[in-house]
Amino acid sequence: MLSQQTRDIVKSTAPVLAEHGTAITSVFYRNLFNAHPELLNVFNHANQAQGRQQAALANAVYAAAVHIDNLENILPAVVQIAHKHVSLGIKPEQYPIVGEFLLKAIKEVLGDAATDDILKAWEEAYGVIADAFIGVEDSMYKEAREQENGWNFFKPFTVARKVQESDNITSFYLKPADGSNVPHYKPGQYISVRVLIPGEKYTMIRQYSLSQAPKADEFRISVKREADNDPNGVVSIYLHKQVDEGATIEVSAPAGEFLLDATKDTPVAFISGGVGITPMMSMFETVAATTPDRPTVFLHSARNEALAAFRDAVEKHAAAMSNVKTKTFYSGGPDGVITGEVLKAYVDITGDAYVCGPVPFMEAMIRELRALGMKEEQIHYEFFGPALQLDNN
C-alpha cells in the first residue's frame, strides 16, 4: 500500500502532469528507444510519429495521479490497456525499464521542480500501478495459454484465402500453420498481426478485429488499405499488396473487451462507420446464428457504394432473422450520414447499442444516443489506436 504522504505528493503533481504530460512522455519515448531500440519491435511507429502514443500515455499517467487514492477507479482502463499489452506480447521484465525512463523524463522536463521526494513518490506509485498491470496481464496470459488450442505471444498462421470485400477492404482467412484449430473467441474481439516487412529493421504489429462469428479452424480479419502516403498504412499496404494466399504471418491469441453479450434477447443496434464494420460483422452473424428472433438493427455508413463492404453478407445474415432492419448510408450520396433523426427512427432505446468507426463518427453517434435517452451502460464502443479521450459530452 502507498503511504498517505506518497499519495498526497502524487496528487499534488497532477496539475503539473496536465501541463507538461506530453513533453514528459515525448522525452520518455525518445530516451527509451535510444537505450532499448529492441522495443521498437513492439511499439507502433506511426502512432509515435503522430504523437498519439505520447498523448495516450500522458492521459494514463495523469489519470493515475488523480485517482491515486482509489486506483480501482482506473481498473476498467487498466483492463482495456492490459488486453492491448497481452496482444502485443508485453512481458513483466519490460515494466522496470519503462519505470526507469519515465522517472528520468519527469526529472529532465521538470528540472529542479522534480525534487527527490516527488521522484521517490512517483517511483512508489509506478511500482504499484505496474504490479497491477503485471497481475492482470498474467491472468490473461494464463487464460489464453490454457484454453483449448490456446497459446501465448505469437504463432505462425497461413493465409488460406484472400477475398476483396470493397475497393479498400480485403478479408484474410487465417489458419494455424501447424494444422491445429483456433481457440473460441467472443464476437467483437481482435487479434494482433506481426510482420517483418522487407527493407524494415523492426517488426510491426497491428490489431485487427475478427470479422466473422467464431469458427473452429480459422480466423478472419478484414483490413482497410490506407493511402500510400499515410504512415498508419505501412502494414495494411503490405498485407494488401504483398501477402498472398499461402503466405505465413504471425498472430496473437484473441483479446479485447468490446464484446457482444450473446446471452441477451433484448433489442440490439449495430452502428458502424467505414472499417468499423469489422467487429460488427462478427456480432451480427452471431445474433443471426444464435438468437435469430432478437430485435436487431444494423446501420452502416460508408463514403460511397464502392467502399461499402459486406453488403451481401449483411443481407444473408438478415435473411435468417425474424425481426431485423438494415440500412447502408453513403455520406457522399442523397442518403447522407446517420443523424439523430435516423437513430430515433431505428434504435430501440430500451436495448443495447454497439458503435465502432472513426472517432468523430463515434463521438456523434454516442452523443445522439445519449440525447435519445440511452444510458452509459447501454452504449458499447471501441476505437482503434491508443486510448485517446473520447469527447462525447
Automatic annotation (TrEMBL):
Residues 1-138 form the Globin domain. GO terms for molecular function: FAD binding; heme binding; metal ion binding; nitric oxide dioxygenase NAD(P)H activity; oxygen binding; oxygen carrier activity. InterPro entries: Cbr1-like_FAD-bd_dom, FAD-bd_FR_type, Flavoprot_Pyr_Nucl_cyt_Rdtase, FNR_nucleotide-bd, Globin, Globin-like_sf, Globin/Proto, Hmp. Heme b binds at residue 85. Its cofactor is heme b; FAD. The active site is at 95 (charge relay system), 137 (charge relay system). It catalyses: 2 nitric oxide + NADH + 2 O2 = 2 nitrate + NAD(+) + H(+); 2 nitric oxide + NADPH + 2 O2 = 2 nitrate + NADP(+) + H(+). The keyword Transcription regulation does not apply. Binds 1 heme b (iron(II)-protoporphyrin IX) group per subunit. Binds 1 FAD per subunit. Its EC number is 1.14.12.17. The record marks 84, 382 as: Influences the redox potential of the prosthetic heme and FAD groups. Residues 149-393 are annotated as: Reductase. FAD binds at residues 190, 206-209, 383-386. Residues 152-261 form the FAD-binding FR-type domain. Keywords: Detoxification, Dioxygenase, FAD, Flavoprotein, Heme, Iron, Metal-binding, NAD, NADP, Oxidoreductase, Oxygen transport, Transport. Is involved in NO detoxification in an aerobic process, termed nitric oxide dioxygenase (NOD) reaction that utilizes O(2) and NAD(P)H to convert NO to nitrate, which protects the bacterium from various noxious nitrogen compounds. Therefore, plays a central role in the inducible response to nitrosative stress. In the C-terminal section; belongs to the flavoprotein pyridine nucleotide cytochrome reductase family. Belongs to the globin family. Two-domain flavohemoproteins subfamily. Consists of two distinct domains; an N-terminal heme-containing oxygen-binding domain and a C-terminal reductase domain with binding sites for FAD and NAD(P)H. This is Flavohemoprotein. It comes from Paenibacillus donghaensis.
